[in-house]
Batch of 3 targets.
Target 1
Amino acid sequence: MINEYLAVLIFFVVALGFTIGGLVTAFLVRNSKPGYEKETTYECGEEPVGGAWIQFNMRYYFFAILFVIFDVEVIFLFPWAVVYKELLSNFGIFAFLEMALFLGILILGLVYAWKKGHLKWE
Amino acid sequence: MDFSFISDSIVTYGVFLLFAVVAVASAFLVVSVRSVMHSALFLAVFLLSVAAFFFIFDADFLGIVQILLYVGGVIVLILFAVMLTARVSSSLLQQTNEQKYSALIVCALLFIMLSYSILISGLQGFENTLLPGGTAKSVGWLLMTVYVLPFEVASIVLLAALIGAMAIVGKKDE
């Protein structure tokens, strides 16, 4: 089995080596000359205001959970799509209706959130 | 001890051992580092090594699901939840209390119990069988025929999560 994923494993090892190698080489050859400009988060960008670990707005959580819910939905689409042709020849239109019902229930929730104004950002 | 159920190939066995060490180390760090934020990030490392186990044991569909859903989705959700806590910026947030020694004893007992029962079971039913057409096909077929009712109920569970999130965020009406 591992032979099928040997390419992925080699890619993983090379990517890891590339990252660590770059950092180690930079650590070995650079000279240390820290300054105020260099220690800012974005050397050539906006001046950051405050810390990054702040308390987030509750609204972000809703969008995160919305993302996870539709993430799960997409994952269920994959095994369905793989066997769709076989299902169609065995069960006819029910192969489509099974997934339509699944999507329909979730889209109902999305429409409800939309109607309630939860998707609006103000 | 016979570990041939993992793999006959020494390479696979080595890869399994590598990810096993990563999984145990990151799981330990999740409960031992000071910052909740770092705990959440080590949890991502742990879930990625579990995904590697799925690939090693030929469950490639589950491996992809693990990466997409747990590392891509659930970790994002946990990070948001951590960000929502008021004391996230304080690095001195205690993660342990005075019960940590009794917790260690309970963990050790659980470990002994689980490893004993796994080893005496002889791991029956763990034959290394490759499913025809990969796991995605078999999962899809079972999901759409035998387990179609749980599959539809899963969408209701997701709908409940969506409505629950709306209730947490607060009432909003035009």
Target 2
Amino acid sequence: MALEKIVEKIPSSSWDATSERLVDIVLNSPNANKMPSGLAKTILYYWQRDQLATKIGLQRLIEASMIVDPEKTIDALKELGFHELVTVLESR
Amino acid sequence: MINFGIEFVPRDLYWKTTFYAIQAEKTGFNTLWITDHFNNRNVYVSLAIVSAYTEKIRFGPGVTNPYMAHPIVTAQAVTTLNEIAPRRVVCGIGVGDRTTLEMVNMKPSKPLATIRESVRIIREITSGKNLEMRGEIFTVSGAKLNFRTTSEIPIFVGAQGPKMLALAAEIGDGVLINASHPEDIENAMGFIREGVAKAEKRLEDLEIAAYTSFSVAKTPEKAAKAVVPVVAYIVAGCPELVLQKHGISMETADKIREAIIRGKWKEAFSQVTDGMIEAFSICGTPETVVEKIDNLVKVGTTQVVAGSPIGPNIRKCINMIAVEVFPHFRAQENEQND
């Protein structure tokens, strides 16, 4: 399933909290150097425009956090209660 | 009015530094300084990308030094940045970090003459002038940039010792005092007044920045743990006079410096004491930090730079400063304005 469909499973009321968790994973991962430069610049673009807690921002954050720390990303999404989303991500 | 600056060390990936820079702008920091050490990412490349993702925050090298980079190259770099981000660029220059310079066998010789001439070169070249200069250190024969400069670039001189402080005040638009303790700032102000008087300037026209090692956290222990490595570097590169004032022997500082040069981090950091942390950093809970900044402002500081490490988690600590530290000073300003 494409990421744009995956983020549809996150209710808008949870966008802020999800964005916060994912940003923390991305910034503090010991594998942060795995982040593709193009994706990093896209995230900076959305961050500058306060759009990380939007559908498009979350797409990129999920993509990034799954690259740098898939385990922590899955754990965080489980804690946030997005079990269906986790199943989809794990099956990709 | 007190301004708040923030310092980033481009040891981090470029996009992390840029992420924090955007956050610093959003949360109300006024100036962003990026350190210049050969073993980290290049300062001007880092600043160029920061400039592309920010709109209003001032930024510049904090600080570069004329031993590793000829001042004409510094002038070229900051002028180019000023083209990308007009009126937002500042230039911090100082003698550099002794420990890092030693790694490449550089001796910061004749620091006063070197800084005086460097500032002259940077000021003239960034102003678009054709420079002819035969100095004690540098000789420049008809140097001029082949592109137009858009606005003046304020030059801040990093200083710690008495003569450099006076020189910084005399020739700089700002002084970056490498200190975190109010007694050190108060002491520095005497030399700054001397420099200002020599240049027949007004003290009010000079930006006086306390370039602090800063660590804020929910508990004092967490804040202290984060600041230890930075304090170790400060002690290692500190002039004897400053060490003596805080009751630290040169022998201890030498031991820390030698351990750092050998890459023995644990050995270096284990010698950092609570007294060193108190002397060389602003460290603690938001409440403590407010009190310490207040003390710096009382003795004449006009910009407080939250320098490395900022705290155990940079993003959370920037938010903590914005939510729990800034309001205190904004409230003070509002009272003064009423």
Target 3
Amino acid sequence: MMVPVRCFTCGNVVGEHWEEFKARSREGDEDPEMVLDELGIDRYCCRRMLVSHKDLVDIVSPYQ
Amino acid sequence: MDEEYDVEFIEREERSAKFLVRGVTPAFANGIRRAMIADVPTLAIDEVRFIENSSVMFDEQIALRLGLVPLSTPPNEFDEDDVVTLSLDVSGPATAYSGDIVSSDEMVQPAEENVPIIDLKDGQRLELEADAVLSTGKDHAKHQGGVSVGYRHLQRVETVGDRGEFEDVDPEIYRGVIQEGDELVDTEEFDHDLTNRYPDQEVAVEDVEHAFVFSVETDGSMSVEELFTRAVESLDARAAELEDAVSL
């Protein structure tokens, strides 16, 4: 629903980078690989947290 | 142990560092690693009292997310059963961020300001009060100060002769830090492949005894130096406790 605060595997805090990642790679047209490198998310466990995430709050909020 | 330790930093940033420690046994190095992960206490939100939550997430889910936000933990200021109260009050349409958390103690602040807690729509509201407690990574991963803590042997590289001119060259991958004579070189400099650094020579690689390269990252609750010294202190305290327990 909301982006996980920490990486499931290593415990690194990744939630803080989500909005920038989303703006640049999903809504913008930058290469996700480059964006993750620039954000300093090096390990693949942390990278998959952002790459595989989908915000669902907008989808479920009408059905409160 | 009375011998001198030699600590040399290879990389040093606010939240991550790579350093070489000489003069420790493998058992001691591993003890420090484990202490950094599981035995250094940090503050984290443990109990949340909701006053209003009309968001799309359940109270428990929000409490979990709040718990995972790292809080700055000043050394030697708090005891195991101290409680720091924090509060959060956000009305939609807005996103509640970890930076919106208001702490009753100036020393205890969220280490990250931009972690989204919950997206609030029009008319939704989140108001809560939370208690942060001091505990160790053994108890819950949210209290773990060190993130991806590890060590490798320092490796000594020596050239032992020339490579045959027409030999097939296989990559020789080493990750970590190598020692050439008296100089330390991070393997990142040559893309972790020794054949890039010594294209025409044969090399011999061996572990340097009692020399370990630690790579440590913290979640922001304290600096790497502090995490490391407190890990050593906790080992020391347990050794003293054991000594007391077995002496008559």
